[in-house]
Amino acid sequence: MKIPSIHVGCGDFSLQRLGVLIDGNEFNPVACVDIDLKKAKSKLSSIKINKNEYLTDRVYTTISEAKKKHDAKVCFIFVSFKEHHKLIIESLKLGMHTFCVKPIALNQKEFKDIMDIYSLNSKLMLLQGYNNQWNEAALKMREWMQSDNGIGKMLGGQCISWGRQNVKKDQPQEVINEGTFFHSLACHQLSQLVVAKGLPDYVTAYVHNRVDKNLNYQGVFGTSGAQCIFEYPGGVPFSYTGTRAAHGNPFGFASRWSGRWIIHGENGDIKREGGHLTLYKNGGPVEDYYLKDLDNNLIEDERIQFKAFHEAIMTKKNRSNLQQSSLDAWILMEACNESARKNKKISINELKKNIYGK
């Protein structure tokens, strides 16, 4: 059964996601929200989305106004991340399941505000969207990480990411807002770690405070790159190195966002680069795959994610794990920022107590 939904944001990225929702069988977008009504209606009338004509007459400036006129049960939010916090709270207060593209919050106060409102109606589903963990390659890596037929108990590992984002445009969000390297780029790789192995016990992180006029880096804390090490139970280490050094590469905009991984376990080892994965055991490769990695514009990745969100709402299948892993990914990214700011090892449990208040 299709669930009626409100779609917030009429920018190009958001409208690509609206197209996925309209063409799918899970949700029925009944209204759009955008602060610029004229521009939004023009965009909606010009794009080629199957059966979207009715939406040009259903654009509102607030979620509350749209909800008042349409009986929607779900809200999708795809706008500037500076607006996420207040829009999520508005949606939750209106009693709607809420899906918001990462990051749902820019700091601990915003996250706490959201969770305080969510706690008043925890029957709703709150999901932070991470599209990198749904493709075939990511799912195969997760399977090997969690299975005794894969690597068994993890002994250690590392991930390297050479990310590229549009940081040369005027006043890009990613280079003027503190801590957004973790919350907007490293999360693409490390959410895959969280959904597979959960949160570590401790985090130690360092950031690259880079000034580079050609790449529009302005020396703002936590925007250009970072390195960190996570300690899982039993002292199991996992390291991460990432950069947003947008020098470009021959593979296109999003290449290397999935990460270059080596993971060691008691029963075997994983080597992954994008869609190429190899499982090693007993001195040699036992499984080797070239699987689909990121889809063009991440469309197929979003489609799979939306289906999982719908199924969790309708049947409660995997609902708790799906939601908690997305929120835990935010916790891990913020722990990295906290460690780099204070130049100290951060306890995940202590950070969660400070944020959740318990």
Quick structural gist:
The chain is an alpha/beta fold and 358 residues long.
Report on the structure:
Helices cover 37% and strands 25% of the residues. The protein is of the alpha/beta class. The chain has a nine-stranded mixed sheet. A six-stranded parallel sheet has the order 3-2-1-4-5-6, with helices on both faces. Helix 1 (12-23) crosses helix 9 (299-315), helix 4 runs parallel beside helix 5 (108-118) and helix 6 packs across helix 8.
Features:
globular; 17 strands; 358 residues; nine-stranded mixed sheet; six-stranded parallel sheet; alpha/beta
Oligomer: single chain
The helix/strand order is: EHEHEHEHEHEHEHHEEEEEEEEEHHEH
Alpha-beta content class: alpha/beta
Mean pLDDT: 91
Number of helix segments?
11
Q: How far apart lie the N and C ends?
A: 38 Å
Number of strands: 17
**What general form does the structure show?**
globular
Tell me what portion of residues adopts beta-strand conformation: 15-25%
Can you summarize the main beta sheet?
Answer: 9 strands, mixed
How are the strands of the largest sheet arranged?
Answer: 16-15-14-13-7-12-11-8-17
* Amount of helix: 25-40%
Compute the gyration radius: what is it? Answer: 20 Å
Q: Ranges with pLDDT <50 over ≥5 residues? A: 250-255
